[in-house]
Amino acid sequence: MHITSERRLDDGVLVREFTLGEIPGTLWTPASAAPAPLILMAHNNGLPKADARLVARARHCAADGYAVATVDAAGCGDRPRSTADEQARADLRRALRAGEPVDEIFESVVGPLVENAVPEWRTTLDALLALPEIGGPVGYSGWLALGIRLAVTEPRIAAAGFFAGGFVPRAQREEARQVTVPLLLLLQWDDEGNPRQRALDLFDAFGTEQKTLHANLGGHTGTPWFEAEDGNRFFGRHLR
Amino acid sequence: MHITSERRLDDGVLVREFTLGEIPGTLWTPASAAPAPLILMAHNNGLPKADARLVARARHCAADGYAVATVDAAGCGDRPRSTADEQARADLRRALRAGEPVDEIFESVVGPLVENAVPEWRTTLDALLALPEIGGPVGYSGWLALGIRLAVTEPRIAAAGFFAGGFVPRAQREEARQVTVPLLLLLQWDDEGNPRQRALDLFDAFGTEQKTLHANLGGHTGTPWFEAEDGNRFFGRHLR
């Protein structure tokens, strides 16, 4: 892990940009010297790690005593995309404009994105847990499809907070029943691009006995800020 | 308002039993001397105010700085029931045992219960707000059908936390869209006696723009304790 820049925020949180081979990442750690529990925070469908909403959540979470890390995994954020990826995304934009069915195109975009992202997140996790300022256990927050895959394949994930507003490939919908860690699923009731019933069906399918759904009125980006606080308390119950 | 007994708990909360005409009630007030916001707490479908789960929630809430009051309104708890009430309840028990449809019988039990309870809760609210140790604003917690009726008819109610696990008469299902105060609806995902879809439809129908649904795995009485804490924080956002 190579630190490329660091700065300290007013609330004492240290922000470090890093690279890990080809993987660019950001790590927020709290002012406290004690090893902090780690939360991996990923944005739905490979949006950039520098997105303002993700950064705001990460800072809030770090100020509350967690180490928070995010990366742009293969094909995510500004990472290069394959010709096939670019073609699938062009198809998606065209279909959305034309009002045509998009499920199969989403499947071809998001399915490989998740498959390729998982090993890079696991590599990142290995590197982060080697840092003295980071303890266990590990939580996961954000991108639903990636989180399902990670929760099923990565035994170090102890709790997961998922945001329902993103396409979930067939493979992850089927894996949902294998998720056995405590989870909190966050749903925007009127998310224009993500049918509510799919999120409710997924909540029903998760295999864990400790699952909570929080739903709020409003569209995709309308999640109220108090849900960030509720998320911290959820992790507080399971990671501390 | 006539105080019939009082005692102080270890955490400083003062518990007073009172009567207001024929209405028996309990009032919990926090140790602090400053006027506290008031929460009216009612048990679904007229269950007794002395029920252990309600008492536990009320104490927790008072220890957190709220004045909490509950009453057994007409026909609720141990209050006398009319011959018609008794007959309807006998019909309900028989139908439940026989596995017959119960919606119409529930309607005949709960509909009048709500109608008769509302004026007694409003009388209680008048008396409570006259006490110097109670300030405004006022929250409501618990019994869904009564809460809908109160939120629609009583302008002093500023926020409402509802528990979905109770029959909601037709009149209140229709009134739901007139509820405009911030609300938190608590749903047990596998509540055997209360179909999940009805609760989701009701959440969808509420007229307020600030509505949040919390759903947890498990049956009617399985609500996790952290929801009591979440409830206090919900009231903290709207009553303080």
Automatic annotation (TrEMBL), chains A, B:
This is Alpha/beta hydrolase. InterPro entries: AB_hydrolase_fold (IPR029058). SUPFAM superfamilies: alpha/beta-Hydrolases. It comes from the Bacteria. The lineage of its organism: Bacteria, Bacillati, Actinomycetota, Actinomycetes, Kitasatosporales. GO terms for molecular function: hydrolase activity. Keywords: Hydrolase.
